[in-house]
From TrEMBL, chains A, B:
PANTHER family, alphabetized: LEUCINE-RESPONSIVE REGULATORY PROTEIN, TRANSCRIPTIONAL REGULATOR AZLB
Any matching Pfam family: HTH_AsnC-type
Protein origin, superkingdom: Bacteria
Protein's UniProt name: Lrp/AsnC family transcriptional regulator
Length: 153, 153
DNA sequence: TTTGAAATAAGCATTCG
DNA sequence: CGAATGCTTATTTCAAA
C-alpha cells in the first residue's frame, strides 16, 4: 500500500477542498517547488490515492428539492436477493449513496428527488413494488448540516 | 434561479464524473466550440451551479478502515441544543456527513474512522459523553454499494 | 448580443543538473 | 530535489453574424 508522507497529506487536504488550485499555488502552501508538487500529484493519481476529480453540482440548481435518508429491511433470504437489490440501486439516478450495513436494517440510501411527488414515484417503483423488501423507513432531510466527501488525513 | 439548457446539463453530467477534461474534449462530446464551452463553464462556476471542484481521496489510502452510519436521537429540548449538536458535527473531521431529519430519529451521520478503536473513541467523546443526546444506533458499513455525490440531471 | 477563430497568457509536465 | 523550458490548455480579444 502507498505510504503518504506529510507533504502528500497536506496536498490531499487542499485538493479535497479545491482541485483547481495550480501546482504553483499548492507549492506555495506546502513549501515545495512546483515540479515536486507536480510529481507528487501524478503519482497520487496514478496510484489511485486520488480516486477521481469531480465537479460538485448544486442540488438546488439541478432541480433537487428533496433529499431523503431511507432505511431498508429485506426479507430473510439468499445472498442473491441482496445482490439484486445492490445492482438496482447502483443503476438508479435518484440514489446518490447506498450502504449495506449491520444492525437493525440492511441498507441505508441517500435519495435525491425534485419534490415529494417524485420521491413517491421513486419509492413506489423501487421500494413498494419490490418483493425482496420487507419494509422501509423514510426520513426527510430538513438540514444538510454537513455534506463533505472528505476523508480525515 | 439559473436556467440550465441541454448543453449545460450535458456538461455538468460529464464534469461530475471528471472535472479534468479539457474544454476541447468537452466541446467534442457535446458538439460545441471550445470557446462556447469555456464561456459556459465560467458562468456555471460564477453562478455556483458548480459549487466546488474537488479531488476524491481513497478512504482506504487515507487510512479509513471503518465507515459507520449513526442514527442519533436527542432529548426533547430547545433549538439551542440542536444548533449546538450541528456545530459540533461540522467541526468533527471523522464526520463526513450529517443530516438533520424528520422521523424516528433526529440526525444521521456518516462517520469515517481508522478502525473500531478509533470509532469507539469518537463515539465516547462526541456521543456517549453528550448530555443532549438520548441515544444512538451504530450501523457498520459492510459494503459501500454506491457512493456518489452526483445529482440527477 | 452571441459565436467561433486566432492570439496571448497561464499552467503543466519534462528534462537536466 | 529545484530550476529552467517546451508543450499543452485556458482565457481573452476580435471580427463576423
Amino acid at each position: 500500500m502507498f505510504q503518504l508522507d506529510d507533504y502528500d497529506k497536506a496536498l490531499l487536504r487542499l485538493l479535497q477542498q479545491n482541485n483547481r488550485l495550480t501546482t504553483e499555488q499548492l507549492a506555495e502552501e506546502v513549501n515545495l517547488s512546483q515540479s515536486a508538487v507536480q510529481r507528487r500529484l501524478t503519482k497520487l493519481r496514478n496510484e489511485k490515492v486520488i480516486e477521481a476529480d469531480v465537479a460538485i453540482v448544486s442540488p438546488l440548481a439541478a432541480g433537487v428539492g428533496i433529499t431523503c435518508v431511507v432505511d431498508v429491511v429485506l426479507h430473510e433470504g439468499s445472498s442473491k436477493s441482496i445482490d439484486k437489490f445492490k445492482a438496482a440501486m447502483k443503476n438508479c439516478a435518484e440514489v446518490a449513496q447506498c450502504y449495506y450495513v449491520t444492525g437493525t436494517y440492511d441498507f441505508v440510501l441517500i435519495v435525491h428527488t425534485r419534490d415529494m411527488a417524485h420521491f413517491e414515484a421513486f419509492s413506489k417503483k423501487h421500494l413498494m413494488d419490490n418483493q425482496n423488501l420487507k419494509h422501509f423507513y423514510t426520513h426527510v432531510v430538513m438540514d444538510k448540516v454537513k455534506v463533505s466527501y472528505n476523508v480525515p488525513l
